Amino acid sequence: MRRVVVTGLGAITPLGVGIRRTWARLIAGDCGITSTAHLEPQERWRELPSRVAGMIPRGRKEEGGWQASEWLNKGDERRMATFTQFAIAATEMALQDANWRPSTQQEKETTGVCLGSGIGNLEELYNTSITYEKTGYKKVSPLFVPQLLINLGAGHISMKYGLQGPNHATTTACTTGAHAIGDASRFIAFGDADVMVAGGSESCIHPLALAGFSRSKSLATLYNDDPSSSSRPFDRDRCGFVIGEGTGVVVLEELEHARARGANIYAEVRGYGCSGDAHHMTAPLENGHGALLAMKRALKHAGIPPRDVDYINAHATSTPLGDAAENAAIQSLMLGEDGVDTASSVTVSSTKGAVGHLLGAAGAIEAIFSILATKENIMPPTRNLHGLEAGFNFNYIPGQAQERRIGVSLSNSFGFGGTNACLAFSKCR
C-alpha cells in the first residue's frame, strides 16, 4: 500500500483559533475551560449540575478569537451549521499550511474530504423543534435538514474547494475525528485519492447537551467554582469529563506526491486500528480490552512493536472508569509481548485538562497534538494531575511539558457504543 503523510494542520480549540496558538498555549500549560454560568438563558445554565465547558474564545482572529464573518460571507454563514463553519475555517488553515490549492481537474478529482461530527447541529434541532411545536410547518426553515446532516460539513468543504475525490463523513461519537483521519489515510493508501482533507468538528455547548450528559452521570460537577481544575485526567480526584467545542483538520497526502511538490511533512501515518467493546452503551470494559485491541491493530498495521512507542496521547477524559480502563489497556500493551520492562519508561499524557472533551472533534485535535509532538520532540502535559491511585505507574507528564526524541506516537480515541480507534504516527524516513 502507498505511504501516507501529514502536510497541513488546522485547528480551532478552547485555547484559541489556529494550531500554532493552540499548541503554544497547550505546551505552556494554559487552560481553555471556563464557566457557563454567564450564558443565556442563565436560569437554564445555572440549574445544571455541571457548569463548566471548553468554549472557543470569541473575538478577532488576530487575537486568537472566533468570528464567523472573518471566515465566511453572510450567505454561507446563514446556510451552515456552526460545526460546519468551524470546519470550513480549519480546512482553510490546513490547506494554507500544506500549500495545496488543487486547480486542475486531475488535482480536484484526486483530492477528497473525510470529516465528521459526533452531535452536529443540536442547537438548530432544539430551536426548530420548539418553533414547530408553537407555530407549525410554515416556520420551519428550508435550511433545517441541510444544516442538520452531519455529512454537510464534508459537503461544504468539497463544494468550496471543488474537491471531487472521496466525499465521506464519520459519526462515531467521541471516536469520530480519529476514524475520519484513519479512514482518509486508507483512501490514499488504496489509491482512491492522492490528498485528503480529514478531521472532526463539534459545536454543542448547549444546556440540553449538558443536561443529557449530566443525567448520565458523565460530567464533572465538583469544580464549578474553579473551571480550570475541573478536567483531571488520571488524577485520583477526577469526577467526570468537561464538554468542549472545536475542530481539528489535517491534510493527508501520498508520500511521493508530497515529495514531488516539495511539501513540508509533519509526520507519517503509520498505523490505524479499530475495535468494538461489544459490552455497554456508555461504559468501557474494565480491563480495557477493546482499547487494547485498537492499539494492537494500529501497531500491527504499522509493523512497529510496543517497545518502540515513545509517547501515547491518551483518550483519558477524566472519568473514574474510563481512565482506569485505558490505563489497564496501555499497561497490557506496553508491558506485554515486545514491550518495555518497566512502567516508569512508558510516557502518556491527556490533553483534555487543557481543552476539555471535544467529542467528535477530540480524536482529530488529539491526533494533531500527537503529530506535533512527533515533529517537534515535545510532549504536552497532563493538567491537574496531583495524585495517583494504585496501578497508575506511568510517566503521565504532570504539569509541565517534557522534551525527548519521539520516533513513534499513538493517539487513542474511544466512544459511546464501545467504538475504539488508535492512530500511529512516526517521523517520516
TrEMBL record:
Gene3D superfamilies in the record: 3.40.47.10
Pathway linked to the protein: Lipid metabolism; fatty acid biosynthesis
Domain Ketosynthase family 3 (KS3) stretches: 1-427
SUPFAM superfamilies named in the record: Thiolase-like (SSF53901)
Family stated for the protein in its record: Belongs to the thiolase-like superfamily. Beta-ketoacyl-ACP synthases family.
Species for this entry: Amylocarpus encephaloides
Name of the protein in its database record: 3-oxoacyl-[acyl-carrier-protein] synthase
GO molecular function, one term: 3-oxoacyl-[acyl-carrier-protein] synthase activity
Domain of life, source organism: Eukaryota
Pfam families: ketoacyl-synt, Ketoacyl-synt_C
GO cellular component, one term: mitochondrion
Active site: 174 (for beta-ketoacyl synthase activity)
Alphabetically ordered keywords of this record: Acyltransferase, Fatty acid biosynthesis, Fatty acid metabolism, Lipid biosynthesis, Lipid metabolism, Transferase
InterPro entries in UniProt: 3-oxoacyl-ACP_synth-2, Beta-ketoacyl_synthase, Ketoacyl_synth_AS, Ketoacyl_synth_C, Ketoacyl_synth_N, PKS_Beta-ketoAc_synthase_dom, Thiolase-like
A single BP term in Gene Ontology: fatty acid biosynthetic process
